[in-house]
């Protein structure tokens, strides 16, 4: 193996911190900053320092190897994109505030790419003319931009972040199914190699469009997603998708929908006044009970809410989540304010446990107006369930009826069978076997590369610090010179021997720091093996620590080298 460069801590750009950053709430955010992996540049925008960049590159390398292994070809598309293709697909407006938009000097509109379905479709339209050119799978590892409403948790939710996005192009549905299956299997291998505990769950397709989609979720308390899985069958779904999968209500035998003025149902402004919060408070379309009364609170367009914060805003009112019981004897009681969309675009609560045929009172598209007898599925489509997680642990599994488990997780990957949505929008055809044009069918597949770094930190860190799996660690061995002169000389020769045998070595050669401080830093940084040259250096004895298990052993340097190489 090639000799590796020894990274000396005395030269390393990584200042470790004893204190958690004040704004950090999640473990990965705290530790990645404290251990000197990343630094905040602006809200949701991060600088990757040398240690962080190494981990990020390791994740990218694994992703790249597995994408190459299924025959996907790497490309690099621009992040700076013209508006027009996104107008053709409808996403220039659909994405709303999530898009970073800018103008060039001539006044032409541009955006910073949040995901690239449109542009890849155009590339293939330009390059492929015959069915013989397909199937093709293309991918890139690239910086993406999304002006998230609430960038948080460090690199878990950035406004600028690294994504691996790939796209498959096939002439038949069977072909698409195959490309999708290849990606699904590659994703399993990627996350296994990275050491990320993960689940595959059914998901909703959202703004991406298309039919089937699945998410790869990494269970972690810091996750912003909630999923259910069944202990007795293989059912697993994001809670968003559990509701989505509810049978549509046909509304047969129910009165037609009717708009009614409902002065008792407040607008956001009136409700905010009633609740004593500014209308700009960080609330959204959310059904809650305030002092026992079910109300909807929120600011249209703001799709996220933090219930804990909501509670603070609403104090001293008693705020509770609406549960199934609240609906049981009040079938008329689902009501609330919905943004400026028309009734056909209402995105609102659809609780699968509300009995079929229930008439609803829901938000209408006029201020101070509500609609009575609206039947979900008849009068409007619920295209995405946004607001309240009404699925609870123990709820019956839609597939077998057993009690569901419920957990928090981080979305690390998402795969979509897009079908012909983008091919239709851009007229992507190839000449088929019979000489007639055939419309192409597509899949798209994302992995949050930078998010995966934070997800790994969440899953593997302990009270002493980060603790990387070998595949992604910024080094293989962290050699600590716990003392001057003899210990330092022994540490130097250990580092040299390890790097000569191909291991990546971090050498703590810093002067003027106590062994205690160096060891605390080593544990914080989280390299899998820590080799300490200390008190017994005179006898050529070192201590070898295994960071994940904490086991320590005194060995001669030769024994330690034999153990590690
Ligand atoms: P989320 O639900 O967390 O907002 P998403 O569903 O909007 O994610 P996708 O459009 O499915 O994200 O993008 C593919 C992948 O990119 C996601 O599975 C996730 O791992 C990653 N990703 C998305 N948004 C961010 C972000 N703001 N910061 C870091 N990674 C992200
Ligand atoms: Mg998102
Ligand atoms: Mg998502
Ligand atoms: Mg997603």
From TrEMBL:
Q: Which InterPro entries match?
A: aa-tRNA-synt_IIb, aa-tRNA-synth_II, aa-tRNA-synth_II/BPL/LPL, Anticodon-bd, Anticodon-bd_dom_sf, Pro-tRNA-ligase_IIa, Pro-tRNA-synth_IIa_bac-type, Pro-tRNA-Synthase_IIa_type1
Q: What is its EC number?
A: 6.1.1.15
Where in the cell is the protein located? Cytoplasm
Per UniProt, what is one GO molecular function of this protein?
proline-tRNA ligase activity
Record comment regarding domains = Consists of three domains: the N-terminal catalytic domain, the editing domain and the C-terminal anticodon-binding domain.
State the family it belongs to. Belongs to the class-II aminoacyl-tRNA synthetase family. ProS type 1 subfamily.
Q: Which Pfam families match?
A: HGTP_anticodon, tRNA-synt_2b, tRNA_edit
- Residues folding into a coiled coil are none
List, alphabetically, the NCBIfam families matched. Answer: PRK09194.1, proS_fam_II
CDD domains, per the entry: ProRS-INS, ProRS_core_prok
On subunit structure and binding partners, the annotation says: Homodimer.
Species of the source? Streptomyces goshikiensis
Q: Its encoding gene is what?
A: proS
UniProt function note: Catalyzes the attachment of proline to tRNA(Pro) in a two-step reaction: proline is first activated by ATP to form Pro-AMP and then transferred to the acceptor end of tRNA(Pro). As ProRS can inadvertently accommodate and process non-cognate amino acids such as alanine and cysteine, to avoid such errors it has two additional distinct editing activities against alanine. One activity is designated as 'pretransfer' editing and involves the tRNA(Pro)-independent hydrolysis of activated Ala-AMP.
Domain Aminoacyl-transfer RNA synthetases class-II family profile, chain residue ranges per copy: 54-469
Reaction(s) catalysed by this chain, per the record, are:
tRNA(Pro) + L-proline + ATP = L-prolyl-tRNA(Pro) + AMP + diphosphate
Q: What is the lineage of its organism?
A: Bacteria, Bacillati, Actinomycetota, Actinomycetes, Kitasatosporales
Record protein name field: Proline--tRNA ligase
Q: Which UniProt keywords apply?
A: Aminoacyl-tRNA synthetase, ATP-binding, Cytoplasm, Ligase, Nucleotide-binding, Protein biosynthesis
């Amino acid at each position: 193996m090639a000799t590796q460069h020894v990274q000396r801590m005395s030269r390393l750009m990584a200042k470790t911190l004893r204190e958690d950053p004040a704004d950090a709430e999640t473990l990965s955010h705290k530790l990645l900053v404290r251990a000197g992996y990343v630094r905040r540049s602006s809200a949701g925008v991060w600088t990757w320092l040398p240690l962080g960049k190494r981990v990020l590159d390791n994740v990218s390398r694994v992703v790249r190897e597995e994408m190459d292994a299924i025959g996907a070809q790497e490309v690099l598309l621009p992040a700076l994109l013209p508006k027009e293709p996104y107008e053709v697909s409808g996403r220039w407006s659909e994405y709303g505030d999530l898009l970073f938009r800018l103008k060039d000097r001539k006044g032409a509109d541009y955006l910073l790419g949040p995901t690239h379905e449109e542009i890849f479709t155009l590339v293939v339209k330009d390059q492929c003319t015959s069915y013989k050119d397909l199937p093709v799978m293309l991918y890139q590892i690239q910086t993406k931009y999304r002006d998230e409403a609430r960038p948080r948790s460090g690199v878990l939710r950035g406004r600028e972040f690294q994504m691996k996005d790939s796209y498959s192009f096939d002439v038949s549905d069977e072909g698409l199914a195959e490309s999708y299956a290849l990606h699904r299997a590659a994703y399993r291998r990627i996350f296994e190699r990275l050491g990320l505990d993960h689940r595959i769950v059914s998901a909703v397709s959202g703004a991406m469009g298309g039919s089937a989609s699945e998410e790869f979720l990494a269970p972690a308390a810091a996750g912003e997603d909630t999923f259910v899985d069944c202990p007795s069958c293989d059912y697993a779904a994001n809670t968003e998708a559990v509701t989505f999968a509810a049978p549509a209500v046909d509304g047969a035998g129910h009165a037609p929908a009717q708009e009614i003025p409902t002065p008792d149902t407040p607008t956001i402004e009136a409700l905010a006044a009633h609740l004593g919060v500014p209308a700009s408070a960080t609330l959204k379309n959310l059904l809650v009970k305030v002092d026992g009364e079910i109300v909807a609170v929120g600011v249209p367009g703001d799709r996220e809410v933090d219930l804990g914060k909501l509670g603070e805003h609403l104090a001293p009112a008693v705020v509770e989540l609406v549960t199934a019981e609240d609906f049981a004897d009040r079938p008329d009681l689902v009501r609330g304010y919905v943004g400026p969309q028309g009734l056909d675009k209402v995105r609102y609560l659809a609780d699968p446990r509300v009995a079929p045929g229930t008439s609803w009172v829901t938000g209408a598209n006029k201020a101070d107006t509500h609609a009575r007898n609206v039947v979900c599925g008849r009068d409007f489509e619920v295209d995405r369930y946004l607001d309240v997680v009404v699925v609870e642990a123990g709820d019956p599994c839609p597939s077998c009826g057993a009690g569901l488990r419920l957990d928090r997780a981080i979305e690390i990957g998402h795969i979509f069978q897009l079908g012909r949505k983008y091919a239709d929008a851009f007229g992507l055809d190839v000449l088929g076997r019979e000489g007639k044009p055939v419309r192409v069918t597509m899949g798209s597949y994302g992995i949050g590369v930078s998010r995966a770094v934070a997800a790994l930190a969440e899953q593997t860190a302990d009270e002493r610090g980060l603790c990387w799996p070998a595949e992604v660690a910024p080094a293989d061995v962290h050699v600590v010179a716990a003392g001057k002169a003899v210990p330092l000389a022994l540490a130097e020769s250990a580092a040299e021997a390890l790097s000569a045998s191909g291991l990546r070595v971090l050498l703590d050669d810093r002067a003027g720091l106590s062994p205690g401080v160096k060891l605390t830093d080593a544990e914080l940084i989280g390299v899998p093996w820590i080799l300490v040259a200390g008190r017994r250096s005179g006898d050529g004895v070192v201590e070898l620590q295994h960071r994940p298990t904490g086991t320590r052993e005194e060995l001669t340097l030769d024994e330690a080298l034999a153990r590690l190489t």
